[in-house]
Structures are given as C-alpha cells and as structure tokens.
Design a protein that fits this description.
Strand order of the largest sheet: 1-2-3-4-5-6-7-8
Keywords: Amino-acid biosynthesis, Cytoplasm, Diaminopimelate biosynthesis, Lyase, Lysine biosynthesis, Schiff base
Structural class: alpha/beta
Helix content: 40-55%
Low-confidence stretches: none
Distance between the termini: 37 Å
Binding site for pyruvate: 47, 204
Protein name: 4-hydroxy-tetrahydrodipicolinate synthase
Number of helices: 12
Family: Belongs to the DapA family.
Active site: 135 (proton donor/acceptor), 163 (schiff-base intermediate with substrate)
C-alpha cells in the first residue's frame, strides 16, 4: 500500500452543539484532496480529537470518509489506544467499513516496555489484513518505540509504515535498517524536509490543511534534486509549521480553517479555543 508522500491528519468538524458536522466534513475532505493535494487522510487521529470521540462516532467517520473520498485518496483510520483488545475491536470494525489502513499510536499512560509494545502491535496486526502504520509520539504517550523494536515490527508483513515523531535521528536509524517497502513518515511538519533527506518517505501533516499544495511542491522539488528550491519553500512555510503548535493541537488549525471559510467549529473539552493573544498570532500566519 502506497499512502503517498503527503498525508493530512484531518480535523473533525463540529457544529455549534459540539456534534460532528457531516456537511462540513464532506466539504473538508473534498478541499483536502482537490486543493491541498493530500494523498491520504488520517481520520480520527489526535488532530481529529480522537480522545473525545466515541467508538460510534469514529466508525461513522470512517464510513463517511471512505464513501466521500470515493477512491480519490486513501483513508487511514486511527484505531490505536492503550488497550490491545479495544484496538483490535476498532481495527476490525474499520476494516469492515472499507478503510485503506490503520494508524496505531503507542499505548499511552500505562507505559509498556519494549516487549509489551512489540506484543501490542503484533497482536493488532495479526487481527487484520489491513496495512498498519505505527505511530511513535513520545511527547504525548510517555513511552517511545525504540528503533530496534520498530525494525523488529517491520518484519511483520502488514506493518507497512511508521509515523515517527521522536527525532530526525531516529528516522535516519530506522531508514538505514528497515526492509524494502517499509515507509517512514515524520509527524512533524517542520522536520518534513530534513526527514525526507535522511530516508523518510513523506509527512503526516497538520499544516497541510492550509499549505498542502506548497508542501507537495517542496517535497517534489527535493525529490527532483532541486534542493535550493525545496529549502526556500521550507523557509517560507516554517512560521506556519511552528505557529500552528503554539496552542494545543488542533486548536490553532481549526481556528485558521474557520477564518479561511471552512467552518469546522471549535474543539471539545478539555481543549479550549485560543485566547485573544493566541488568535492574533494565528491570524498573522494567514497573511
């Protein structure tokens, strides 16, 4: 499965009552595919506020997204949790709904050791025929999948990729030892260019909600050997890459999308809208 170079971790649109806004979800999917050039969409990832979505809401989003995308891009379902049995259940439900792959975050809070991490991901992978993308984000989970554990998991046939947020250094180590066809994605927009330079295949992005087409051009330029052009685009986009994370994600990107006319609503508690000062900084990114 080739998920492409640019994957957008899609926000979940809510209406004024805090419920999923299906009309705006469809509009957002069309926009991310057609205007921002996303090759794949992660649905119900952290940027989609997965901790506040029920399983019923997640399955409805998986089903709707597959039907709305209609083959124009791949749909990757965020089905990971810190419970292996729960992750297996949600993964199997997502598979029935026709998604193209699943994203499995490292278990958070219970902090398993490396053997526990291996057994967790191996068990979920064995429960499905779908391609699996691991997700290592130690800042959020308080545990990191080591490069050795990633390389061990990469030997499992349907574990096809990783979204790696630990460091560009770790991406380089994994790229040096991974089997052919195992795809590495950075989950940090600001690291997209250096990560691809050391062996990543692409990026799972938040900023691509706003500058996806330019990110696609940046990546294409680097792959075409036009490093100077790619660097100039990186420098231009860097304020957006960094500025969107001055608030807890996805507070800033949802605010920016609303300002751009994509009425994705606010965030669910325990996240809160940006302060007046934060909102002014977000608006400055859009000029």
């Amino acid at each position: 499965m080739d998920f492409g170079r640019l994957i957008t971790a899609m926000v979940t649109p809510f209406n004024a009552q805090g419920e999923i806004d299906w009309e705006e979800t469809g509009r957002l999917i069309d926009y991310l595919i057609e205007e921002q050039k996303s090759d794949s969409l992660v649905v119900c990832g952290t940027t989609g506020e997965s901790p506040t979505l029920t399983d019923e809401e997640k399955c409805s989003l998986f089903d709707y997204s597959v039907k709305r995308a209609a083959g124009r891009c791949k749909i990757i379902a965020g089905t990971g949790s810190n419970g292996t049995a729960h992750s297996i259940h949600l993964t199997q439900e997502a598979e029935k709904l026709g998604v193209d792959g699943v994203l499995l975050v490292a278990p958070y809070y219970n902090r398993p050791n490396q053997e526990g991490l291996y057994q967790h991901f191996a068990a979920i992978a064995s429960s499905t025929a779908l391609p699996v993308m691991l997700y290592n984000v130690p800042l959020r989970t308080a545990v990191s999948i080591s490069k050795d554990t990633v390389l061990r998991l990469a030997q499992i046939p349907n574990i096809a990729a990783i979204k790696e947020c630990a460091s560009v250094e770790q991406i380089g180590f994994i790229a040096a030892g991974a089997p052919e066809g195992f795809a590495i994605y950075t989950g940090d927009d600001a690291s997209a260019l250096p990560a691809i330079a050391v062996g990543a295949y692409g990026v799972v992005s938040v900023a691509s909600h706003l500058v996806g087409a330019e990110m696609k051009e940046m990546i294409s330029s680097l792959l075409a050997g036009e490093a100077t052009k790619a660097a100039k685009l990186h420098h231009k986009l860097l304020p957006i890459f960094k500025g969107l994370f001055e608030c807890p994600n996805p507070v800033a990107v949802k605010y920016a999308l609303n300002e751009r006319g994509y009425l994705v609503g606010s965030v669910r508690l325990p996240l809160v809208p940006p302060t007046e000062q934060e909102a002014a900084k977000i608006l400055s990114l859009l000029k």
